[in-house]
Amino acid sequence: MKKVKVTSTTQLSEMIEVSKEDGPNYPLLSFVGFDVRNPNQINPTKANYPRKTERSKGNVDVLIASTFGQRWATKSWPLSIFVGKSKEEELFDRRHTLTAIKENKFPLAPAALYERKKTGNIFLDNLKESSVLTLSGLYVNGTDGTVNSVRDDYVNVVKLVIEENNLPLTKEVVCELLSVTGVEERYSYRPTITSIVNAIMDKKTKSTKVFNTTKEEQKEWISSNSSFGNNNYSSVDGVAVRSKVLDSQFTYRYAGDILKWAFQSWVKSERIRVLVYSNAEHESQIEAERTEITQVMEEVFSGPINFFSQKISSIFGKMITLPKVSISDLPLEIWAMPQIEGEEKAIQLV
């Protein structure tokens, strides 16, 4: 590969023979252009490094040798520098290269400049700048065709970003963050990605992003919200109110209980409002239990109806048309108690 000796008079066009398309297509950053920088004036990002590993001396030694004599490979990608809103600059990738060229006393070095990209995704656009640089550093390590990034790098970085941005530990959040790390390009074997998601969502310790998980908290919330209650009627609108603690071990039984209450209210021409809440200590489990109770209720409600309809149809064909009945016809509301950070009011599930 052709190498160009770098001096203070070297033109950028002589130093590099690459275009924007040759570099990483960062999901969270936009390419601004190429320029040159004095290596001694380049500041590595104060954000956490893309990978939670110490610098490899072997890698640096190789780079020092390859750039000896102040030579730059014309097909080598320049230093990646982020330009912030106030025009401050931070090196967020190729920090080993920066160390090497400082060792070899480069007067100038080619740089690829980037700025924050507006993705249109509110969640991603609201991430802290330091998190964007951390995720972008991991992205290039995952998509450069090497094995620089490993499973634990994705686990550590996503956990770090969730903590740094005070995000809830849910599968939706984890998958959204992983989508901009290059993990799909790094691992084509889907079970590996699934194992990364599971490791990030490890529930061995109680999450700091949940509340109303103790009996005392739950009792206090119900008593201070008169639209809900236990086995009585709301003082707000007179609707019958019930409550149910979610537990994945008893979902079918609890789904049957709620449907029984709904049918009893139907017979009495009443409406019923059911409040559900969880004792789980992680937001992912709370979300899963909310989803599961509604899905199982639909299954329990629709199963016998579908079986009966198919039986009648097989006997009488088109001679008899049965009325269509859905769970939405029941005089039933199901609400979830606010238990995940960011939730301020009860959330209606059904």
Please describe what this structure looks like:
The chain has 350 residues and is α/β, with parallel strands linked by helices. It folds into two domains: 3-200, no CATH class; 215-348, no CATH class. The chain contains twelve helices and eleven strands. The strands form three sheets. Strands 7-8-9-10-11 form a five-stranded mixed beta sheet. The protein has a four-stranded mixed beta sheet with strand order 2-6-4-5. The chain has a two-stranded antiparallel ribbon with strand order 1-3. Helix 6 crosses helix 7, helix 6 runs parallel beside helix 9 (190-200) and helix 11 packs across helix 12. The termini are far apart. 32% of the residues are buried. The model is unreliable at 50-56 (pLDDT under 50).
Topology:
Elements: E1 3-5, H1 12-15, E2 29-37, H2 57-66, E3 71-73, E4 79-83, E5 89-93, H3 95-103, E6 109-116, H4 122-125, H5 129-143, H6 151-164, H7 171-178, H8 183-186, H9 190-200, H10 215-223, E7 232-233, E8 240-246, H11 251-267, E9 272-278, H12 283-316, E10 332-336, E11 347-348
Parallel strand pairs: 4-6, 8-9, 9-10
Antiparallel strand pairs: 1-3, 2-6, 4-5, 7-8, 10-11
Helix pairs in contact: 2-3, 5-6, 6-7, 6-9, 11-12
